Amino acid sequence: MKLAKIIAGVLAACAALIVVPGAADGAAAVPIMPLGDSITQGGSIGGYRLDLGAKLRADGHAIDFVGSLADGPASMPDRDHEGHPGWTIAQIDGSVSGWLNTYHPHTILLHIGTNDMYGSDPAGAPRRLSALVDKITNQAPDTELFVATIIPIRFADQAVRTFNAAIAPDMRAKAAAGKRVHLVDMYPSVAIADLPDGIHPNAAGYSKMATTWYNALKAVPGSIGGDPQPPGDDGACTATPRVVGTPWNGGFQGEVTVANSGTAALDGWTVRFTLPSGQTVSQIWGGTATGTSSVTVENAAYNGALGAGAVTTFGFLVSGPGTASLGAATCTSP
């Protein structure tokens, strides 16, 4: 009897060591913090978090949304976040250190500033956002921080455009300085028609936000698992796209800023990005483009050499139906 018990114990221990195929091979879930205001909270439908989580899980990524709040439908697999309705940049700044210490996010998705636009000091919002980003990157320098331009507000569109125009070069400068800051141009992803109350997206608008976040995350190695992209390596470069000016019926103008984020000079660069189905690059300057939906742009003869910290741009026109939107872009150098 004693021998039988010993054998049974050994068999149980061996069974505990068996790895079940398809269980993500024991990969630890990547903690991702959705951070912001009610647009991040997303009401009862879960906001962009619902579709974004589904897209990432469908790709086989083990992720874990983290935060002190939980919202969304009961069927939503992961409802955690730090989206605080009505909060401003300053309010997020006042609490973010505690959240970083508690949840240790590997990746942060930051969309904040909407409530500042109709507050007492919208002009100071870019400065407050810059300070918040610095606080996060100083406390958690290895965290991948994705900073979005804010989506439109029906009754304050000019204030939003001014804010977005001010934060974009600031975020690019932080990235060029070696911080893990990634600018995400969210503004063109959501149309005014997607905002029933003029501020908050409907399900279709949140789905568009999810796609933009998804494309941005996929463009940064390591942000959702896998080997992280080492900052400051020689030959490293970043590409930050944006929509320029006001789109027209059937097209819009785009621009990509290419930055040398490494410590050595670059001798040429290649940028890749994807346009929505049906859209194509009809004209380009500052580079040579190939491809239709999946676009590859190589430097022109005059702007391929970039010293450490240097930047250049190329511009283009896009033709075709659909939203004027540019997802994340990647940059490589020989």
* Radius of gyration from CA coordinates: 22 Å
| CATH fold topology of the largest domain | Rossmann fold
| Biggest pleated sheet | 7 strands, mixed
What is the level 1 CATH name of the largest domain? Alpha Beta
**Unreliable residue runs:** 1-25, 227-234
Find the count of extended strands (DSSP E, 2+ residues). Answer: 17
What is the total number of structural domains? 2
- CATH fourth-tier homologous superfamily of the largest domain: SGNH hydrolase
Provide mean pLDDT, rounded: 86
Q: Could you tell me the strand content as a percent range?
A: 25-35%
Overall CATH architecture of the largest domain: 3-Layer(aba) Sandwich
Task: Give me the secondary-structure category.
Answer: alpha/beta
Count of DSSP helices?
8
Which range best describes the helical content: under 10%, 10-25%, 25-40%, 40-55%, 55-70% or over 70%?
25-40%
GO molecular function, one term: phosphatidylcholine lysophospholipase activity
Domain CBM2: 230-334
Pfam families: CBM_2, Lipase_GDSL_2
Protein name: SGNH hydrolase
Task: Please outline the helices and strands.
Blueprint: H1 2-17, E1 30-36, H2 38-41, H3 47-58, E2 63-65, E3 69-70, E4 80-83, H4 89-103, E5 107-111, H5 114-117, H6 125-139, E6 144-148, H7 157-176, E7 181-184, H8 203-218, E8 237-248, E9 251-260, E10 266-267, E11 270-274, E12 280-285, E13 287-290, E14 294-299, E15 305-306, E16 311-319, E17 330-332
Parallel strand pairs: 1-2, 1-4, 1-5, 5-6, 6-7
Antiparallel strand pairs: 3-4, 8-9, 9-16, 10-15, 11-14, 11-17, 12-16, 13-14
